Amino acid sequence: MRSVAILIFGAILSTCAMAREDRLIHVAVYKGPASCRDCSEAAKLAIEKSGPEYRVDFVGAGEKIDITAATLARYDIYVQPGGGQDIDGAFRSLGPARVKALRDYVTHGGRYLGLCMGAYLADASHLNLVSQDLDSEVGRPGFPVETIEDAAVDVHWLGRQTRIFYQDGPWLESDTANPGFRSIATYANGDLAVARYTMGNGVVVLSGPHPEAGANWFEDADIPVEKMPRENLVKDLLKQLD
């Protein structure tokens, strides 16, 4: 009887372990010349804080895992983090093979999260994951930021008001013809700041501002940390990828 009980207990533990494994969400975060210092790390940390189910790897030419069709097939979500000011240069640094792998990944059902530079790179002139070309929100009517200096800006986020770190990010366009389009957040002037789209069988969520920015970003920019959002905004975006 004792051996039977041990076998049953072992089977239960094995089943529980398999169930936990089934609930894991595997996320690839790009790291390389198309991102900026600390941007990939900040995205990884924010995702890991969103729940124990998230397992995050860095991917890129200089990492142990490169961006190919075979490697992307292991992941539920791909994240393109923030970068510098040279959008075309960032795109060229990816190279044609990685660009094709990313487009095919999304077309066949992958989830793409683009943050600031990652949003710019998703536009029609680059990765072509959305039908629009993107431009900076800086200088738009009613937007309080007039330079590329870092700032904390007000946004209307999923029905609530909050502040978020902003670093020359784009404004987005509504795309009512896109069956998966959903407005997630708007800047205070009403321009679209964060949105969800579909592309083929995949989902694309783009954010002009930086929901992943930690306290060190605010401190380094001499912005009071009291202006940080209290909520985990990255967790909200990960849910929007469903």
Describe the structure.
With 242 residues, the chain is of the alpha/beta class. The protein has helices spanning 2-23, 39-48, 69-72, 87-94, 96-107, 117-121, 215-220, 233-240; strands at residues 25-30, 54-59, 77-80, 111-115, 135-136, 151-157, 160-166, 170-171, 182-187, 192-199, 202-207. The termini are far apart. It has a single domain (25-241), classed as Class I glutamine amidotransferase (GATase) domain (Rossmann fold), CATH 3.40.50.880. The protein is built from eight helices and eleven strands. Residues 26-123 form the Biotin-protein ligase N-terminal domain. Keywords: Signal. Residues 1-19 form the signal peptide.
**Which consecutive residue ranges, at least 5 long each, have pLDDT under 50?**
1-21
Shape field: globular
**Tally of alpha and pi helices:** 8
The number of distinct structural domains comes to: 1
**β-sheet strand percentage:** 15-25%
**CATH homology group:** Class I glutamine amidotransferase (GATase) domain
Total beta strands: 11
- Determine the mean pLDDT: 92
| Strand order of the biggest β-sheet | 2-1-3-4-11-10-9-6-7
Label the CATH architecture. 3-Layer(aba) Sandwich
Task: Quickly name the level 1 CATH class.
Answer: Alpha Beta
Structural class: alpha/beta
- The amount of helix comes to 25-40%
Order of helices and strands: HEHEHEHHEHEEEEEEEHH
CATH level 3 topology? Rossmann fold
Rg from Cα: 19 Å
Main sheet specs = 9 strands, mixed
- Gap between N and C termini: 46 Å
Task: For this entry, give a set of tags.
242 residues; alpha/beta; Rossmann fold; two-stranded antiparallel sheet; globular; disordered N terminus; Biotin-protein ligase N-terminal domain-containing protein; Class_I_gatase-like; signal; Biotin-prot_ligase_N; UCP016642
